[in-house]
Amino acid sequence: MDGLHPAAGEHVISKKRFSAFWGSHLASLLRRLAVGHVVLAGVQTPNCIRATAFDAVSEDFPAVSVLADATASATDAVQVTCMKAGRGREGGRDGPARGLGSCYGD
């Protein structure tokens, strides 16, 4: 993209699938950098954002957030549905989506 380039010293991850974690070294990089809170922004909330959020939880990052005003879907209706679906899913450490309870904002 014209005008959008990594700054000197910034890490670059090549994303190969919906999840940014799949087939990449993202999890090990975030651990090496001592990241405890993964914050997600981007497009295709029902696909890429959701897959990356669930993989971040599966990778045992203590907090995962999706920025409601910095994500998008093909239509407003899909976006609203995705954001509602992500709320209220905290199940504790052994729950199916630990850490996603406060992941989706208004």
Q: If you had to describe this structure to a student in words, what would you say it looks like?
A:
The protein has 106 residues and is α+β, with helices and mostly antiparallel strands. The protein has a domain at 36-106. Helix content is 29%, strand content 16%. It is built from three helices and two strands. The radius of gyration is 14 Å and the shape is globular. The model is unreliable at 88-106 (pLDDT under 50).
Label the overall shape: globular
Which sequence of strands runs across the widest sheet? Answer: 1-2
Q: Total helix count?
A: 3
Biggest sheet character: 2 strands, parallel
SSE order: HEHEH
Alpha-beta classification: alpha+beta
Helical content (DSSP H or I, runs of 4+):
25-40%
Uncertain segments are 88-106
Radius of gyration: 14 Å
State the end-to-end distance. Answer: 30 Å
Mean pLDDT: 81
Strand segment count: 2
Range of strand content: 15-25%
Topology (elements, then pairings):
Blueprint lengths: L25 H7 L4 E7 L1 H14 L4 E10 L3 H10 L21
Task: Please sum up the structure shown.
Helix content is 29%, strand content 16%. The chain has 106 residues and is an alpha+beta fold.
Entry keywords:
2 strands; disordered C terminus; single chain; alpha+beta; two-stranded parallel sheet; 106 residues; 16% strand; 3 helices; globular
